[in-house]
Amino acid sequence: MKNIFKSKSIKTDITFSFVLIILISNILLFVFNNQILRKYFSLQVNDSIEVITKQAADIIEEDIKSTESQVDALSKTWAFTKNLDKNQIADFYENSAKSMGFIEFAYIDTKGNGLNLNKEASKWDANQREYFKRSLNGEVYTSEILTDLVTNQKMIVISSPYYENGKIEGVFIGIKDANFISKLCKNFKWGESGILSVYDKNAKIVGHTRAEIVEKELNLVEEAKKDSSYKEVADFWQNEVLQKQSGVGEYFFTGNDKLAGFYNLDNRGYAVLVSINKSEVFAPLTALSKWLSLVALVIIIICALIVYFLIASSVASAFNNIKKDLEKIADYDLISNPSEDYSNRADEVGDIYRSSIMLKENLINIVNNIKASTELLENSSNLLQEKCDLANSISNDISNSIDDIARGATSQAED
């Protein structure tokens, strides 16, 4: 401390020491609390992402089921319309497609011969199509993104078995554009960076909040082989999405750390992914940390002012008063009263004050003793002087007597 901070004022030393202790304590407490808070916040965020992903998957599932129900219900009309005039059939199913949001409807017989139910009445072979095989086995099915054999356009097919007398006699299909599932994803909104996407079991995109990505026919695994920026996403897909029914993970993509939840719709071969920038999710926690830091700083400043002007000033004032008293003693002023009476204080200030008073009293006693000794010495000196004077007088008297005797003897001798 002596080498780091030098001050001529104990008031400043006390304040600085107090602030330093509080600052270090607050920093340690802040770091500890921040780690604990981030840990539990992360757990809460992961739980929330799982719930959001499951809800999004349920909504997509319900919307697809609703669309499948429409196709399934419309397939039953084929029994009544198939014998109508071609123009009547085309008008009915074209109007139905327009009102229900489909591109068109078509019928496929059990041999795989497809017929578009519109004015063009185009025909094609559907034997190699998965949706034909599935529905021919009695399943209502929604395909991945396919290429229309007639128009060469991208599409999604919803197929339903056509029953006649309790027996499957063909397949009825409704054709949606490739953005069918993307339109379902488009309604998803979570913050600024939240994204909802749907992939098939081969990691090929089926739907996305941004429909233009679907048009590029993105495949995560294949794209990672060409573009290293997709590596972490592809690893997440292979190590997490393909291995579990649902979960939450993290990866780095497009310059941001991402939090992502996934849920597999196993009956469809789809995986629903919800992702968002980690920084956006943790933004409230970061803002809270900044506010807490600011509040802590304000509290430290207020405490420092209180310590400086109340506690440290009181201590410094006491030491200054005692210093003045000691300076008076050093100047041999032993009669002035103390600047302030601290005799009732039980702390170090009181101890120093009482010691200074004791020092003053001891010096007074020494001076008094010296004075008394001086007076005694003076009296003894005076007494000695008197005796010396008496001895001198006696000596003079003897000398005079001897002189008188000597003169008398001399006179007798002369006579």
Structure overview:
By secondary structure, this protein is α+β, with helices and mostly antiparallel strands. Helices cover 58% and strands 19% of the residues. It has a 6-stranded antiparallel sheet, sandwiched between helices. Strands 8-7-11-10-9 form a 5-stranded antiparallel sheet. Helix 1 runs antiparallel to helix 10, helix 7 runs antiparallel to helix 8 and helix 10 packs parallel to helix 11. It is rod-shaped. The two termini are 109 Å apart.
Summarize the structure.
The chain has 415 residues and is an alpha+beta fold. Helix content is 58%, strand content 19%.
The total of helices stands at: 11
Order of helices and strands: HHHEEEHEEEHEEHHHEEEHHH
Give the low-pLDDT segments: none
Question: How many strand segments?
Answer: 11
3D shape: rod-shaped
| Overall helicity | 55-70%
Give the biggest beta sheet. Answer: 6 strands, antiparallel
Spatial ordering of strands, largest sheet? 3-2-1-6-5-4
Strand content: 15-25%
Rg over C-alpha atoms, rounded to the nearest angstrom:
54 Å
Distance between the termini: 109 Å
Q: What structural category do the secondary elements indicate?
A: alpha+beta
Mean pLDDT: 85
List keywords for this structure.
alpha+beta
